[in-house]
Amino acid sequence: MNRPLIIVLLLLPAFLHAQSALKTFQRSLAFSSRQQKNMLFFADSTESPPDSMRSAKALQKDKSYLVVSGFPEQAQVFMNRDKMLPGDTPRSIRTGRWVLGTIPVHRTELPAGVYNVAVSKSGYESQSFKLWLKPAETTKLTVTLKPKSRTKALAYSLLYPGAGQFYSERNPAAIAFMVLETCALAGIALSTKELESKLIEFDDARYRYRANIDLQLMDDYYAEVESKYAQVKDVERIRDNFIIAAVSVYVLNLMDVYLFWPFKHLKVQPSVHSTGSIFDGSPKAPRWAVRLSFAM
């Protein structure tokens, strides 16, 4: 048999195997190139890739938008998170309380997630609740604050002088009434304790006077009884003065909180109805308080 033919027959299987391996390698390169192009497309595209092709970190970085309107205007809107999420930075969101803006708050971009929200303005009842900002959605929040009530301030002052003044944001008057009432009550407590001590001393002196059988010491014992009785009356008078002071401060506190109400000019906004829900894991907020709606 011809030697060249034998060599060709021996090398033919190796050649065919090498050709098959080369084709397989070319197909794998083509597939890898297509996959890389697809990933680049998703990275550069304005549309979000499917969730199955995105990492948890990328999902946490999704942005949402918030619009806040309501009553009264210029009410401050505070927001914060309980804790940072992976991918957050101190500049993007803080763990402390920070001011988002004042009503009306125009379309503001925020990381998606659950936020603690507080809305407040002088003369109005503050509101606090949790709000869930969904990824890639615009949340429209309408908040109506209720004006503070003189009756509620009076009720607070009935509990303790100065509490109603704090509620009505008259802090100097509140501190003054609280300090005066606290001092008066402390004086009553201390003088009552001192009076009990003086009464014991008076009873002891009277007992010694009655038990005395020595006529020469009778005048001395009687003088001691009179002295102890005078001390009892002095301490009793001091205690009574503290009681009068406490009652006077209490009554003046009620008159002050009712007569000098600082928010007479505030107006009441008509109620609004809720069109959404608040994410708080607790009983829902009052229907008149918050209105939510979502828009893509």
From TrEMBL:
The keyword Transmembrane does not apply. Residues 147-270 form the DUF5683 domain. This is Carboxypeptidase regulatory-like domain-containing protein. Keywords: Carboxypeptidase, Hydrolase, Protease, Signal. Residues 1-20 form the signal peptide. It comes from the Bacteria. The keyword Hydrolase applies. One of its GO terms (molecular function) is carboxypeptidase activity. It comes from Caldithrix abyssi. Pfam families: DUF5683.
